[in-house]
## 1
Amino acid sequence: MYSKREKMYWLALLAVMVFIHCFRIGSIPYGINVDEMGMGYDAWCLANYGTDRYLKSFPVYLINFSGGQSALYAYLCSPFVYFFGISAVTLRVPAMIFSFVTLVFAVKIADYIWNNKRINLLTGLIYTISPVFLMLSRIGLDCNLMLGMSTMYIYFLIKAIGGGVYGYKKFIFVGIIGGLVLYSYVISHMLLPLFLVLLIAYLFYTKKIKLSQLFAMIVPMAILAVPLVLFHITNIFDLGEIKIGIFTIPKLYRYRGDDLSAQMFWGNFVNFLKTSLLHDNIDFNSIKEFGNMYYISVPFIIIGLIDAMVKFAVSLKKRQWNPYSVILLWFICVYVTGAFISTASYGANVYQINSVFMTYLFFCVDGLFVLYSRIKAHSLAKKAAISAIAILYSILFICFAKYYFFDYAADTYLIDLFNFKFDDVLSYLDDELPDNVSERNTYVGDLNQTYIFYLGSTMTAPYEYNKLEDDESYTLWLWTQTYKNYRFYFPEEFDPSGNYIIPETDIRHINQLEEHGFEKRHIGNYYLFWNQYLDKEETDTQAQAVISWDHGIINGKLMPDGKDSSVLSGWAINLTNASPWDDIVAYANGKYYVAKKMERADVAEVLNNENVLMSGFHITIPSSDFIEGRVKVYFIDYYNKKCYVESY
């Protein structure tokens, strides 16, 4: 039992833990990661319809943006998005909950290995104040679930192994937890089998497990692994998707087998240590100035790792099981797996190898304990060392917390692959602007996988949005590019008839739209732009235009009459400054058609003005739209903010 003072320490630690993991959870990191949003929308679909966004019934692995995503996080998130909708907070609740799961089981592991209340408290303290554990628990990525799941798995594993020769039920439970680890992150599909091979060899060598116990552990894990094995077989050999009852084993559009590379192994062998012990280059994983677990922890981690290796060697020599060896074996397997990862120039990043930090936590604690043991006979040195380390960690934590909660969001705005919902912009567009504006093509530009932020904003049913006719990758590309009058990209050629929803960080496109004189509103984290000139009914300036139907020159050829379309062609000059119009747009039957400009050397020669060379134009309008009523043509001068309107 803990003393009254120790209980007070724990209460203070838990209070700090709760505060830093909940404070501003929806705004730090700022925005929503594209994979968070993909997971969140799939979780909402699963909660409401029993399918993902591709209409796959209860998939064992999500397709996400074609390359896949582990499914466990989405299933855990689905109750929260069902009751509270999609937001940064609801998407991060499972990660936040599992930060406490990690703490609880990390302390339980420490207690089992060292059976020392002070070490338990030290484990909880280092976990709470280390940047990496906080940052990984404040973003709803599927991979980050593996840290808590693997910590839980390791605890029940060493508990079962140390529980005597008759603990079959415990081994069954360990097998179930191990099977669930496989659904937390795809890296575990390589890591866990490798770990089990080393662990089983070690346990048989130390005579710590029986075949019956091994069987009790492996069978439930194997049963849970079968759908994932079939998943890999299906995708490696390009087979069709499989249905097992209500569950789907999907075929991905892009199987990421090349994310693991033997060619990068030796280079990544060193890079792994740099990334894990120091920091990576991803803003939502690490802060360079502080490191993953503070740079002061690195020597303690190394000391603890060396101590673990020594104890493992002694364990092998004596053929006597040591629970600390399980931590070392897990570290080795994460290291080997991480060295194969080839998704970046420097190998694995922090979130891909997140479960290694569970082992670093114990190595750090052990390193501190080893140092303490060496000097505890020297009272003065012991007090000085403890005080110095405590002060250093306290200062580092205070500096980190101050920066992370108050300056980090501004310094990193906007992190790559992050963006925001824009439901407030869509509401303004539909409710505050005229129908002839809201019904125009609306481009949502400069986002990564823009369509998923639209789906997350509108929570459109997957049965309504899904238009996939086959499983070809080109169909997926078309499916993610357009929906109704929304275009999820910024057009290569500027469309003067469109509306634009642009993130406030996209300065280039914002400047372009401002130069065109578009009307704008700053709503939330976006700018909404629309061409107010297309609302005009009256003439604002003078123009000279010669326009005729169904004849004109396109690509050097005479444009013939057509049964399905009509062509409006001619030339037009802005008499205000004797130049071609910036844009010419026709409006017919509720639709806009942008003119293509052409050279008119004859006009330039007659007027003796080379500036009007590009005064020619043609507009192709479907006959069905033309015969419905009159056609209005807008001649727009953005610089002088003028517009001339003709009706035909």
## 2
Amino acid sequence: MKEKAKKKQQMGTLKKVLKYIERYKVFLVLSLIFAVATVVSTLYIPVVTGQAIDHILGPGQVEFPVIFQLLQRIGLIVALTALAQWLMNVCNNKITYEVIQDIRREAFAKIEILPLKFIDGHSHGELVSRVVADVDQFADGLLMGFSQLFTGVVTILGTLLFMLSINLRITLVVVLITPVSLFVASFIAKRTFSMFMLQSTTRGEQTSLINEMIENQKVVQAYSKEGDVLETFDEINGRLEKASLQATFFSSLTNPSTRFVNSLVYTGVGLAGAFAAMHGRLTVGQLSCFLSYANQYTKPFNEISGVVTELQNALACAERIFHLIEEEPQIPDGEDAGILEDVRGNVDLEHVYFSYDPAKKLIEDFNLKVTPGQRVAIVGPTGCGKTTIINLLMRFYDVDSGSIQVEQKDIREVTRKSLRESYGMVLQETWLKAGTIRENLVMGKPEATEEEMVLAAKAAHAHSFIKRLPQGYDTVIGEEGGSLSAGQKQLLCIARVMLCLPPMLILDEATSSIDTRTEMKIQNAFAKMMQGRTSFIVAHRLSTIQEADIILVMKDGRILEQGSHEELLEQKGFYSELYHSQFAV
């Protein structure tokens, strides 16, 4: 049953691959035509060679004029064969890399619309491995399949026809021994798919570890964990070595096994042909032609067996990438989803329930009403659900029950684009793309003028350090901000939001990496920016949210206390404890 399921799985993957190839059927047909032309011209050469041999009758009996004509014909055929083979390879490359381009495009497009739950639940390095390494492996297998499978099959059929035209009995010897070669190749191929699948999965695990360690190398070195990381890497690397060796060893048995069978074919043809020549049923030229055909007939079996092995690897890699492509995307905007317009900042959360894991309750019966221009601060211990509220407001996750409304419209009934354009967001975790400072600043407002950009940078107190960079606003920074400090990266993210100035703001530990003096200046800039705008502020430093209109004190997904800074201190409850604990000596 397990074997049947595996075979069904392989066939399903193969059908998916063929659907991609079908888009380029014109090139597929051309490739087949050129493959036939290559094989026919290649098989015709032994016929002409045999004719030339038959014109060598004995000492002093060589018909040179005829032989020279035949040699010229062979030269022309070789040239045509080379041209046909080149054109076939052009078509094969076109099909392969167009298919790979389509698959990569679909995979990346799917990542863009996958729910954050999937991204958060999978290793980023493993996803990278699927889109890069697995697709490359698949491309190699597909290209080999086109290059050798077509010509191999056509060569086998063409050789049989040519041999039948020369001698039926000797051809039967070839045909009767052939199934042994096919059986050997099939037997080995069936057992290599699961091995290549394990190899591909382990390679993804290794890529994931490398990606994670490179991104966090400072932390690894700070805690002197290099040895532990190396041990983990060696363990995974050892498993990859074992899986790769096992897959390669078993797959490499195919070629020598089929070569042994093919040698039997060649031997059978040689013996049968020799007896036929002795009895005058074959000429010496025809015998040489037959031996050449026997060699050409068996050669494709070696190639096809190699192709089958490589295709096992390719299909294993294709299966992993198709798993990604076929993942359920985030719930799309409804056909009747409206556009959120004229946003003033009315936000209502009614009886909201949400948890990342159904077995672990988080937010339960959460209610909040925010009017335009209010500054809402959310405080509480780690893991109480502060950032989760932000995720729900932005609809990175959908509520399990209850509703979140903006301007009396349920956010599930409006487009995500219009909802997210209504918010400006600065997170504790900064993100800057590889490119210029300018490109990063205008990300949310591409049409911004130079003056607007500079004013936003000045408001965020980023202008002075930007001007000190080698090319100012045109300085190119690397991935994740390159050599910029954590504080400088956060200032750029703040400037990016200040340039957009949307009707609502979300500040999640927005000044966590900034020095106290600069933070005081930015708080003043934030105060100006927040005037007339609904703002949600997540902060651990309670000194930064004393001016908030409403402070929500959360614990275990519930609002324990609610009010202004002075009101909450007077209550002498949980907020008062948190506040005084920060200033305790």
## 3
Amino acid sequence: MKRDKATKLTTAVAVIVIAIYGLQLHYRYVAEFPAFVHSWSQTDRYAIAIGFLNNNFDLFHPETLILNKQYPHWWKHADSSAITAVDFPIHEYAVAAAMKLTGNTSPIVFRLCTLLVALIGMAFLYKLVHELTGHWLKGLLVALVALASPVYAYYAAGFIPGVPALSFAIIALWAYLRYLRGDDRYFAWAMAMAAVATLIRTSFAILPVAIVCFEVLRTILRRTSLLPKLPAILLSAAAVGSYMAWNAHLRSLYDTVFLSGLAPANDITELKSLLSQAADNWRYSYISKFQQRLMAAIAALAIISMILKRLRNKRKLSAEGKKPADTSLWIFVGGYMLGCCMFAIAMAQQAPDHDYYFIDTFMLPLLLAFALVLRVWPRSVRRENTFSGLILVVLIGGKMLVDVSKDLKHRRDYDDRSYQTAQAFEGSEAWLDSLGVGREAKIMAMYAYPQNTPFILMNRTGYTLMWYDDDIVSAAIEFPYDYIVIENRRFRNDFPYHKQYLSHLQPLATNGKITLCHYSDSVVIHRVEDFEIATK
């Protein structure tokens, strides 16, 4: 009874610390419109949630707000619908439901929903490591390390689906550990949660594959039987496979704004170059310098401790009771890591520009490996040692909090085109309403970046034109739009270089930041000054 009360108390303390830590990191940014690093992907996901409000919550026909998709036509084909193929958007669907209930479609709703799921995932990470290591402070330390990973911290209250997918993957591993400890009921839960993670973000398929492969190995070693687990495995595979088939169907009918295939390097030389670029770009974004040193120091001391124990003929590092042996868990982690390496190779073209792929792949097995290293350390039951350990963990967490807070600020400390676009289109919905531009009007957002940002803020659908490539512009000019909208700043900066298109814009009205135009067959603007005069 006393032990149960102590466990409940330490769990409550850990959850409170995790919640305070997460809120302290993100309270400054929860109302921020997505901009800066990877604003493109983030606004696309934001638009999916808005799309569910527009399509009466049709989960199986997700849509954004743009009518010309990136794939496969590279924005050069005008579709009649904004429906798009995308990984199962259950998180965006839940966000849309929250928006409907609160009557609020601002970014704060999306960010808070993601943060809530992220903190739940961290609470289960704590539980997972606590059960794995036998000590609650070790679980809290691993959770704080995860929360303070710069890349995770940036997206934990954001729009990228990797964070909610990771939370479900953590829950799946927690359930799988319970199964390995002897409770067979949890295997079905593990496969179900792993399937949800995979549906949200396909790259998380590495986890259920690793679990199944590990179970096959255990069956070969006669430690278990695979037959009773087949229903859960097959149901999970059927759920993932069915939605993948549906997604392929959507892609064939409506195209997509999301990457839907592998992107490997062309040869080994390019592979080395791409991975080197990714390491240079994101070396301290995945895990901070302090975290790398901390984990390396703990690993080194753990190895020394293990060697000394064996030299002194102490008990070997094996399972007690129903606990699985460390060596078995290391095999699982090794297999999981191998799958992540294979995926990284298959997506090498994306690695230099997409830091959040780390959340999808290596983050979870690295955290598991760190937990296994911590498992070597003895468990102290003395109250004074527990108190001093808590102080040490809090101090380490505080140092990581300071470091990652600086990183979050640094990611926003530059003149960013996506931020400029968001600022320019702020208030554009009411402005267009005042001009009598109906919600059904199709707008061409000319040279606005990223693609969904202007349409979210205008609360309208239309066509994106982000690039100056002649083939893209010449195709877009022929789209069946009603109006063109362009940022005044963008027009002034770009007119000298792209006047063959910009000179045909006929200004209709401006709010000082953006201008509503028609496209004329003849030249209307001969100089930038002509545009300035027309928009006064």
## 4
Amino acid sequence: MNQTAKNMVSEKKRVIVKKFLFYALVIAFFVGVILLYYNMLYNQTREGIIKNGQAVAIQSKNYLSEYLSTSIDAIKLTAYTIDGMIRTNKTNKEILDYLVGQSTAVTNAIFENTTGLYGYINGEYLDGAGWVPDADFVPTQRPWYVKTVANNGNVTLIDPYLDAQTGKITMTIAKRLVDGKSIVAMDIVLDQVQNITEESVKLGKSDYEFILDSRNMVVAHSKKDEIGKNYNDEKDSFWSVILDNAKNADNDFFEFDYEGAHYIVYSEKIEHDWQCLIVKNATEIFTPLKILLAITILIVLVVVLILSYILNKSNQRYIMAKELNEQLSSLSNIYLSVYDIDIIENTFKEIQSNPILDKLLRQNYENASSMIEGTMRQIASKISLEDTLRFVNLATLNDRLKDSDTVAIEYQNIEQKWRRGRFIASQRLKNGAVSNVLWLIEDIDKEKNERDELINLSERAFAASEAKSSFLSNMSHEIRTPINAILGMNEMILRECNDSEIIPYAESIKKLFSHRESYKMRT
């Protein structure tokens, strides 16, 4: 081989080497880019799952907190009123009447899934729902009584339990009363919390969601057959593995593998040492990412956009659910406002209020009289204003509460909505004069409209009945006159006619009406 041929072969080898190096560098570049995108997409996907789990957990946490908060407020208000009744030596009959009314109000305005209010008061079990216990029922031995008495007057949340009859998780909220021995309580069913966990799975926000109480007993679960189980008692099950990982996790989320699948779990702490766990099976999410190692960056970008869109839609659902919960919460109070009024000192203290009254009270009223009168002047309609101002006059309140513990008035506000204002005597002096009252405003617009409709229907039914009676009376009178004339003529025929053919007909007419009159007398 001559020199020229050798040079050509050598140059060809150098070109091949250069091409090999170039293509190697290009492949390495794209492999590096794909790996970079893979790692970035993997981390983004995991973070998205975690954030989504966090959003779902926070939603459930907020709902449960609001649900319990509303229950606690109802117990506090009831306890506050009964404390006043105990101080003023009200009978258990009067206290039971209050519990019955309050149970109806709580059931209608806040919770459909509650049996109402009950308690052990002045040595006697009182039930606002009318339940009569068995003869061997000892209230002071029940957990709700024992734990509440030992809780120094604070609102007590009794550990939930699985009701054997209904198969539903039920819990008791109770509070010790002023005498230190009496208790007022309410049972609530956690159905709505269960619905939240199931809805989360239906919407694809998670594969499993469950809530555990402080004993690690299942309070709510997207798989209903798990409700009431205690995961401390299980070993090596899927749920016990999740619980063990949650106990040992340094963060509020963790990952683990189980039977060939990869899971990401987000854990959110809830009040009273409860926790909400959101479980996502990430196996099907991460498998396509491995496939993306062999395809183009464009597909990677498309996948990122799709995942971003999914996460954005999920976040929008969460925001909508949050706004809905806030709207329902704003309707969950029994009373629009509750104030404690000291008549002697002419001062007031807010127990429960709403944004509208909060805005009005920023005017810094000097005393209770001016505060009540000023607010009612702004919220009552012109038609109701005069009567309402007479009602809120504290100077005449003692006379009106002389023989009663409560007075009320129904009025329309400036939006033509019906409201009920109420004064309840909460404390009296030794001479019987009222020293403190509760001032409450209640929304009765729906109740008032329904009541007016029933009255209208009743009046229309009565008018129809009167018209019917009048018609029958007139008809009877009109028919009786010609019949009497016929009977008179028939008597004349019997007395004066000798025709043998006519006489039998006249006698038949007389017998017919004789039988008719005899039947009327018997009936």
